[in-house]
Task: structure prediction
Amino acid sequence: MTLLQTARTGPFAIALLIATLLSSGAPGAGAGSGLPGDADCDGDVSSIDAALILQHSAGLLSTLSCPEASDANNDGSVNSLDAALVLQLDAGLIDTLFSGHWRQGASMPTPRTEVTSAALDSVIYVIGGFRATGGNSDVVEAYDTASDSWSAKAPLPARLDHAGAAAVGGKIYIIGGYTSLAQGVVSSATYEYDPAADVWAERAPMPLGRAAAATVALNGTIYVLGGVGPQPTTPLAYDPATNTWRELAPMALDREHLTASAVDGKIYVIGGRRFVTQNVDTADVYDPGTNTWQPIAPLPTARGGLASASLDGLVHVVGGEDLSPGGSTFPQHEIYDPRSDAWLAAPPLPTPRHGLTAQAIEGRLYVIGGGPRPNLSVSGAVEILEPGTP
Ligand SMILES: [Ca+2]
Ligand SMILES: [Ca+2]
Result:
């Protein structure tokens, strides 16, 4: 049982935990550190702070010396998740508590969902997707993170939704997607975009078509993982230098609407869904050096239609959708720490949505577009995660 689960087990377990923790010492006097997790402001984050946060969230303690610091993950509420994070930190299971807050950027001119994106320097290219009318799109719009402004680029050679994108060597590659979701037509096309010339070219197609896959670049190679299409557990790798594709060792679980990000030479493949409505918490790591897969700690909130980006050695996972009857979209923002194989709860997305895209640039996470409601709805939202507290 993890500490996170311990903290969620109920009042009895919480009371027991408080008793255990308080027996190890008394809360320190307030010194006003403001350090995330330091609920008693004594300049030290320890299990005492976790006990205080738990007492407060259980209604046993009416005030906290450092209310802001007690919100360890800075998501606007003080609860057992904050206590669990403090305990994880105190036990050495995680290195840092995540601190960050969201702000809005300039909205995308063409609101879309089921988009893809790639980043070059300080610019994020948001490509294809569904428009509000439900038709798929060849629209390419570029968001300059430095100036918080948008510009239109040469359209895609085809209308695509649920495509993949990655940047290698100063070019952007668009891979697969649906040319017609309604008719189930999955593309195997590869397109290359030259941002200097604002021109698209066709490259060698995938040996197997793919839509709603995870696409990520690592060390000059583009990996396409999972998704819808023939042999969906067979990942594919594209080398832009030789314009060739190859097949990789199969994934354990066939799933689509998943996400992937690379950290330190490995690819973390997270979440997704099966049979349309079955969201999964499955998470694996792929090592390109050995062409092998290993399971990692499962995603805390099972879901597909999510997005991710790696930032400072952590994988930030945002959004998603539940397509079962009465389902909704997810505000969840969860962070995977590969060093500890642990997940951290983080400030949720201001606008819950699915079919969105995420990129990390210069210490900030940018989350763009997507549908605020399950199925077809669109948004032009640009939500930016800034480090630290507001
Ligand atoms: Ca403390
Ligand atoms: Ca919190």
